[in-house]
Amino acid sequence: MPAGSSRDERLDPFTLPVRFTAPDKTADGNVRHVELSRELAIVRRTVAGIKMAVRLPIATFRGVALRMVPPADHDGGAITIVLEHHDPALSLTLFRAGDGMDVIAEWQSWARMLAVPLLVAEPDGELHEPFRRVGPLRAGPPSSRRRRRNAIKSRRPTIFLRRKPGRSIADAEVHRDEREIIARN
Fold first, then answer.
1. Are 102 and 59 in contact (CB under 8 A)?
2. Side by side, which strands form the sheet with 18-23?
3. Which string of DSSP letters, residue by residue, matches 120-161?
């Protein structure tokens, strides 16, 4: 477990870059060392005595997935947040908890800090996005326009909304060299 943790495996997304170790069944010693920053993930491990380091830009990851781990013989199951890669061997577990207290907040924090989409894992392992998106923006129903209580109201008087537009002086009549008729005392 990471330093400073209690029962749950937890990395803080707001303290990037972070270094941690993760279990790896194919590596020597069943462990791999990971360095994670906002732009890059470096996975270091030793396989058959050969040291290797894999540099993965965060853009190559599919997103941050919320996964349910079913109960096994010796534990009661868990909820995990995983930085998913197209190659499952390169996916990184970022958070693991036995209960679902802070899972949604952690899931959204990791996705926001790494600028990757939110994903949900189905029981069959399939990943999908929980919200529709258009490019990097979340799509939703359009909100209704509020005329009176908007951000501009505090900066601009509402009288301009009711006032008629002024006339252009380009079309105005000009009288030159004429005798001026002005009532002066």
1. no
2. 18-23, 31-36, 40-47, 50-57
3. EE-TTS-EE-SS-EETTEEP-PPPPP-SSSSTTTTTS-THHH
Q: Are strands 127-128 and 133-134 parallel, antiparallel or unpaired?
A: unpaired
pLDDT of residue 179: 73
- Alpha carbons 134 and 162: distance in angstroms, whole number: 37
Q: Does the pTM exceed 0.85?
A: no
More confident site: 183 or 27: 27
Q: What is the pLDDT of residues 132-173, one digit of tens each?
A: 666 666 666 777 666 565 565 566 666 666 666 777 788 788
Q: What is d(CA 25, CA 44) in angstroms, rounded to the nearest whole number?
A: 14
Both tokens of 162, joined, read 């009711």
Is the predicted pLDDT of residue 72 greater than 70, yes or no?
A: yes
Do 103 and 81 touch, CB atoms closer than 8 A?
Answer: yes
CA 110-53-125 angle, to 5 degrees, is: 45
